[in-house]
Amino acid sequence: MTSQTTQTEPIILEMRSITKEFPGVKALDNVSLRVKAAEIHAICGENGAGKSTLMKVLSGVYPYGSYDGDIVYQGQVQQFKDIRASEHAGIVIIHQELALIPELSIMENIFLGNEPTKRGVINWAEARLRSLDLLARVGLREDPDTPIKEIGVGKQQLVEIAKALNKSVKILILDEPTAALNESDSQHLLDLMLGLKAKGITSIIISHKLNEIEQIADSITIIRDGKSIETLNVKADGVDEDRIIKGMVGRTLESRFPDHTPNIGEVFFEVKDWTVGHPNVADRLVCKDSSFFVRRGEIVGFAGLMGAGRTELARSVFGRSYGRFIDGHIYKDGKEITLKSVRQAIDAGLGYVTEDRKSLGLNLLDDIKTTTVAANLRKISHNSVVDLNQEFTVAEQYRKSLRTKTPSVEEGVAKLSGGNQQKVVLAKWMFTDPDLLILDEPTRGIDVGAKYEIYGIIQQLANQGKGVIVISSELPELLGLSDRIYTIFEGAITGVLNKDEASQESLMKLMTSARKADAA
Amino acid sequence: MNALKKLFGGNTRQFGMIFALVALIVFFQIATDGRTLTPGNVINLFNGNSYILILAIGMVLVIIAGHIDLSVGSIAAFVGVTVALAIRDWGIPWYAGVLLGLALGALIGAWQGWWVAYVGIPAFIVTLAGMLLFRGFNQFVGKSNTIPVPADFQYLGSGYLPEVGPNTGFNNLTLLLGIAAAAFVVVGELRSRARAKALGAEVPEMWVTALKLVLICGAILYATYLFATGRPGTSFPIPGLILAVLVLIYGFISSRTVLGRHVYAVGGNRHAAELSGVQSKKVNFLVMMNMSILAGLAGMIFVGRSTASGPFDGVGWELDAIAAVFIGGAAVTGGVGTVVGSIIGGLVMAVLNNGLQLLGVGADLTQIIKGLVLLIAVAFDVYNKSQGKKSIIGLLTQNFNRRQGPSNPNQPDETTSTKEAIAREA
């Protein structure tokens, strides 16, 4: 591996004026990319800018001939006709959605499609030895026989990298590698990338998390609207997050959060001693004696590491849609209420926007107007016959007020970008006119410009006197948005901080320790 | 082309199927020297396929919800034999027999729906078991004998609209029905157009609407003419009438009611539906139960048509119904499909069957051709979708879609990978 660094040519990969057209649209317009050997090169851009398309061109998903321009790799023009060809050359892409088979073991996944064989029979002994070595290199201490489904996303990511290393990778492409990872897994992954760099492996990383890019990248290429805007040298140019954002959106964002003066009323929603069991594991608790309250017009943040039980808490309160209810009380407007189903929760004035837009939040086959009214069909139907005119009017109204970018409300939601999909989901819940809206990772996978708009919508809801709970893994987001922040650790609420006393450090401390805030 | 697409409500797939159906009819009309579009043959076509089309109505809902029902043939046979026996042995009148059959269908449906919705057994397994179970019941109850039904019950499966009023040379009721249907279509279309316009939604040009109405009404009136001029004693068949009523009811339920929306929602993304307050178990239960009720009805119509119930009634029906639904544009993964599409899909198969028979093609070749048609119809669609195109017609019209707006729908989204898109559409 170290032989790579001795290469005289410092540029390992050059993509020269790549243009890729889809019917009716230029996804990439004359994009150029120069990657030096053994560097970490980040590609930044808003959603839809063309980052993933560029990587698909590089990795042969879009074969040679389907695009214009040249890929020069190790001094030669390449003509990859599929992913296998690019992998053979040492370019391996790890997609956002991991390509692992949950039922197979770590070892079987590492060698999938690349099995060490002896006269056509798989040599499992060799596979085991090699996988132990690979796992050590990525710093994953797991038995190679463990099924993939039994390890977390962070570890699965490492298995993907081990799989890539097994293919003697020279350029490793990671598409949003830390999107689904918690803080410590992310850090581990970033450290691993630095380690690989030291061993001469070049990495290309696509990420929305600009702080991570700032931390590890050597160069940054910014893509906007299918064009390569600039390539920054992180150290020489003294690049920081604001500089990257400026390049991505083509303007400076004065503030990442809209101005907002909270107008907070009395406590109207309260959960006490909420205890919920894991849906499958008998003795495991996902929520332990959690109590919290929300005031009218208040934005309440829930901070916690991934897997801390934030989503579990929210979903179990929202009509027991997760886990086994064990104990607890919900009070709304001073009266105790029992919510045994999602229907009851919606009727009681609750709304829940899920963190997983695609698999839990949307029916991707639906169009915008059907989605907008899906949670409150009763309001637009008479004798259970849906009034299609009203449906159209309602959807139009929300399209305008939320500024959803779409040619029409008849458009399928699958065709929208992440930010616009999220606006449609928000419209769906706003149409149920909830008193309390729970937003689980409301800006995940959404680009900077759309985030700002979503924040505005959230603040607007609070201004209307609704209570809003925001669950987020991004602490700056919680700090910028919330009036009060609860911290959750291992299913229990470990503290609550007001806006003025909260900081990343104080939150992180509470998010990683079981101590109650008042005990500290 | 864009206008042509709008002609059929923008549903390109359905348009493709209508186009295929018309082409098929024209082809056979020419190939058989005009024997396809004769009153006798068209009446025959409807009589011989109405029960399959009725099953297709139920089946498309089952498939939209993401399930399948393999037991419909056996249930039809079991209900048929039970009703035939009840009428013969207990002497109950024909209408009581029909009610009994529907009730039995509902009971069986509740049984299957319970397993699917509340126990969580995949419908494939539940209905595979049901297929064996109710076939066995049919032969056990009927002792594998043929049981005749009286003439008034036969009316259900082989009756025609009666002759009333003055002698016009046509069957008056059929004529009336055809004109009413045409008027219904015209008024409905114009009203929805006016409403859409009032809301500021995009409406097709007036000539497009007019052309559409002329074509549809022309087809309806021509069919009316055929049905009304059959040999004496025949006219629009009763099974066809039942079918038409069911298509109207179920078409309305699936597209316009809350329950219909919920069926699509559960099939499209069950988790998302549940988190929006849809009671998916109830929906699954009702969809499975409804299928069995319709299977019972189909079984009774068949018994009426063949004048007796037998031990092998309904063998293979489930496959015909499923084929109709998939040719009609439904997706195996659920969430996609329409009642009207399935009827058209069923008619494509029926016309094919009938035309090949008229041409004297043997049963062996007919099966081969039908199998290939099913495969190619669906394969072509899957292929086009995997290429990011909508369908045959989508392919033809894609150049015209460009001017629809600044944000182009074909643009690949960062967060929607092709892989995902294929998996979703397949």
From TrEMBL, chain A:
Q: Does the keyword Cell membrane apply?
A: yes
Q: Where is the ABC transporter domain?
A: 13-250, 269-515
Family annotation (InterPro entries): AAA+_ATPase, ABC_carbohydrate_import_ATPase, ABC_transporter-like_ATP-bd, ABC_transporter-like_CS, L-arabinose_ABC_transporter, P-loop_NTPase
Asked if Mitochondrion is a keyword of the record, the answer is no
Determine the domain of life of the protein's source: Bacteria
Annotated GO MF terms = ATP binding
Going by the UniProt record, its keywords in alphabetical order are: ATP-binding, Cell membrane, Membrane, Nucleotide-binding, Repeat, Sugar transport, Translocase, Transport
**What SUPFAM superfamilies does the entry give?**
P-loop containing nucleoside triphosphate hydrolases
Instruction: Identify the PANTHER family for this entry.
Output: CARBOHYDRATE TRANSPORT ATP-BINDING PROTEIN MG119-RELATED, XYLOSE IMPORT ATP-BINDING PROTEIN XYLG
Record's protein name: Xylose ABC transporter ATP-binding protein
Report the source organism.
Answer: Pseudarthrobacter polychromogenes
UniProtKB/TrEMBL annotation, chain B:
Its placement in the membrane is given as: Multi-pass membrane protein
Matching Pfam families, A to Z? BPD_transp_2 (PF02653)
Carries keyword Transport? yes
Q: Keywords assigned by UniProt?
A: Cell inner membrane, Cell membrane, Membrane, Sugar transport, Transmembrane, Transmembrane helix, Transport
Q: Which domain of life is it from?
A: Bacteria
Question: Membrane spanning segments where?
Answer: 12-32, 52-85, 92-109, 115-134, 170-187, 207-228, 235-253, 285-303, 324-352, 358-380
- Region called Disordered, residue ranges: 402-426
Compositional bias per record (Polar residues), positions renumbered to this chain: 402-419
Q: Where in the cell is it found?
A: Cell membrane
- State the protein's purpose: Part of the binding-protein-dependent transport system for D-xylose. Probably responsible for the translocation of the substrate across the membrane.
- Annotated protein name in UniProt: Xylose transport system permease protein XylH
What is the organism of origin for this protein?
Answer: Pseudarthrobacter polychromogenes
What lineage does the source organism belong to?
A: Bacteria, Bacillati, Actinomycetota, Actinomycetes, Micrococcales
